[in-house]
């Protein structure tokens, strides 16, 4: 009988805006009883004021020094930090059409409900129509993030990489994991 290897304890979820990184992070946190650290909470202050990059790096490094964590994304200016510490990278390599539809639906819901996203920040019609729109970020980053994920999956010298090209592939993989554990509070 072969001993089962323990499941990775430090997980980076990577993909474009609208891929479902935060939704997956919450699900994995519940199933695996691992702490999820939403990246937006570390990178945005109230009023959508971006945290200075050196401070972002320090905050991410502090998370990555822990024995277990799930991060729901990574910015290029500090991507090296979780890559050096992660046991597993999960790449959500979904189509542009799917991710854009999800992003539009989520953004419309957030605007209409006024739901707080992080640190008191909310999506507004003004923010969506601004030069810093999450929609523009989606288009600007899609190809770059896709190429990066595929490169990691093809030849990762570091952590294990699981690349999912459809939500159905991801759902099948999730079904193989342990059953859902009781909710664990975020750090």
Automatic annotation (TrEMBL):
InterPro entries (UniProt xref): Cytidylate_Kinase-2, P-loop_NTPase
Name assigned to this protein: Adenylate kinase
């Amino acid at each position: 009988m072969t001993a089962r290897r323990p499941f990775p304890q430090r997980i980076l979820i990577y993909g474009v805006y609208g891929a479902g990184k935060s939704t997956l992070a919450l699900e994995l946190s519940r199933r695996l009883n691992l702490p999820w650290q939403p990246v937006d909470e570390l990178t945005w202050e109230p009023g959508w004021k971006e945290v200075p990059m050196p401070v972002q790096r320090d905050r991410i490094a502090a998370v990555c020094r822990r024995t277990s964590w799930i991060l729901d994304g990574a910015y290029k200016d500090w991507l090296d930090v979780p890559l050096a510490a992660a046991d597993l990278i999960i790449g959500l390599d979904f189509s542009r059409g799917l991710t854009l539809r999800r992003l539009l639906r989520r953004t419309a819901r957030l605007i209409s409900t006024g739901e707080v996203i992080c640190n008191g920040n909310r999506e507004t019609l003004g923010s969506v129509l601004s030069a810093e729109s999450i929609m523009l970020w989606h288009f600007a980053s899609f190809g770059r993030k896709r190429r990066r994920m595929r490169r990691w999956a093809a030849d990762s010298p570091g952590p294990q990489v699981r690349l999912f090209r459809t939500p159905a592939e991801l759902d099948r993989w999730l079904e193989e994991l342990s059953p859902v554990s009781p909710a664990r509070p975020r750090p």
